[in-house]
Write a structure and sequence with these properties.
Layout (H helix, E strand, L loop, with lengths): L3 H16 L8 E5 L12 E6 L5 H15 L3 E6 L13 E7 L7 H8 L8 E8 L6 H14 L3 E9 L26 H20 L5 E4 L2 H6 L3 H6 L2 E6 L9 H5 L5 E2 L4 E2 L9 H5 L5 E5 L2 E2 L3 H7 L13
Parallel strand pairs: 2-3, 2-4, 4-5, 5-6
Antiparallel strand pairs: 1-7, 8-11, 9-10, 11-12
The structure holds flavin mononucleotide.
Flavin mononucleotide binds next to helix 2 and strand 5.
């Protein structure tokens, strides 16, 4: 855990953040724009890559990829962690999608972008999926473009798609009427139409050779990302561990953990390195991940969907 000194320092910073009056969203903290000309106005080959913990970002990515294919484009699509980076310089368009975690794009997605080779003039577009109404989504999508522009990509689009929240701490509102809960809006045909329209928009921008400027602005939630919201939340989560009797050692939790914090040999979780992304509990189908908040056991995403009989409307592209 953090030292007492760090704790005091973070407390002081958090107090300062709380005392901050409503920060105007017109303060620009970065402008994301092309630093070089677009490589080509023709798109024959595209990469649509995403990180998705509970499937929302993946569904949007697949709809986007299939829409591009219908336009005659060859598309490589999939989880960015499995992508062969050597292929990136061969494509004519890169689209990257991510969920919003703690008001931003997760660090491991940013690190993936940092690890790419130079993409010299390739048009780039970003999208994020998010679960709540106030989540700094525009800035989170800007974080993706920022990284791609540092690699000399040319920004052409940014979009946000509302989905259902996968944030485990929003599931324990057990007395709440789930149908009116603002975090449980399931993506529907309108969401997928917006995704298809976005794919069309990206292509038309590239064909016209248009690039856009995007501004990251100083919102209160952007400001709060400077103080490690996941670190603060972690202070209130107890007994994060694997329940040996329930665990079937399928490895789903390990597969999603971005920090290798789970050891199934000892059924333990290294809570110091854990970034509290809930990937383990959200993907365990055996209720074998224990996490408690205010002495209540938390629920994972799949358990939450099942308990509330929430079913996804699949986009036409994904129906078999
Ligand atoms: C750890 C964590 C933090 C989250 N933080 C936010 C947030 O700050 N703002 C927001 O709108 N949604 C937030 N969400 C909800 C996800 O962004 C949303 O459910 C997203 O669609 C999940 O995508 P996926 O299914 O592809 O993983 C969070 C979810 C998790 C698990």
């Amino acid at each position: 855990m953090e030292s007492r000194r760090t704790f005091i320092k973070k407390s002081a910073l958090a107090a300062a953040a709380a005392a901050l009056p409503a920060v105007s969203s017109c303060v620009t903290i970065s402008t994301i724009k092309a630093s070089e000309p677009m490589k080509s106005k023709e798109v024959n080959y595209a990469a649509v890559l995403w990180y998705s913990q509970t499937g929302n970002t993946q569904k949007c990515g697949k709809v986007l990829a299939r829409t591009l294919e219908k336009k005659g484009i060859t598309v490589i699509d999939g989880d960015l962690r499995n992508f062969d980076q050597k292929k990136i310089t061969a494509v004519d368009l890169i689209v990257i999608g991510s969920p919003v975690f703690y008001y931003d794009t997760p660090d491991f997605v940013k690190k993936f972008i940092q690890s790419l080779p130079d993409i010299n003039g390739i048009p780039v577009a970003a999208y994020v999926t998010f679960g709540g109404p106030e989540g700094n989504q525009h800035n989170a999508a800007c974080s993706i473009l920022e990284g791609l522009v540092q690699k000399h990509g040319v920004p052409v689009g940014l979009e946000i798609f509302r989905s259902i929240s996968s944030y485990s701490l929003s599931f324990n509102a057990k007395d709440q009427d789930i149908k009116t809960d603002r975090n449980t809006i399931l993506p529907d045909h309108n969401t997928y139409k917006k995704v298809r329209d976005y794919a069309g928009f990206i292509i038309s921008e590239v064909e016209k050779g248009n690039t856009s400027e995007f501004k990251k602005t100083l919102t209160l939630r952007e400001f709060s990302t400077y103080f490690g919201p996941e670190w603060w939340t972690k202070l209130f989560v107890d007994n994060h561990s694997i329940i040996e009797e329930n665990c079937v050692e399928c490895g789903a939790c390990i597969e999603k953990c971005p920090t290798d914090s789970i050891d199934l040999a000892t059924f333990s979780v290294d809570t110091d390195t854990c970034v509290l992304c809930f990937g383990c509990i959200n993907n365990c189908n055996y209720q074998a991940v224990n996490m408690e908040y205010s002495n209540e056991k938390l629920m994972g995403f799949n358990e939450f969907l099942e308990k509330n009989n929430l079913k996804f409307e699949l986009p036409a592209e994904l129906k078999i």
